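Why does residue order matter? Because the sequence determines the fold. Keep that principle in mind as you read this record.
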Amino acid sequence: MHGTFRIHGDAHQITIPVQVRMTDGKAAATAHFTIPYVKWGMKNPSTFVLRVSENVEIEAATGALP
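Structure:
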């Protein structure tokens, strides 16, 4: 899937690989992608004690298959 990801007032082009499965006329989709929020101009909230990645991993799913 390709489109525009809008966050904090800025738009970023992104391509997200989506896996779609069909069973008995029902669809389920899953996707995993990375948001490089620091590269996109947002502040890294790390502190002296707390360290976080400069990217956020997103996992999304919709639909339900048995």
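The chain has a mean pLDDT of 92.
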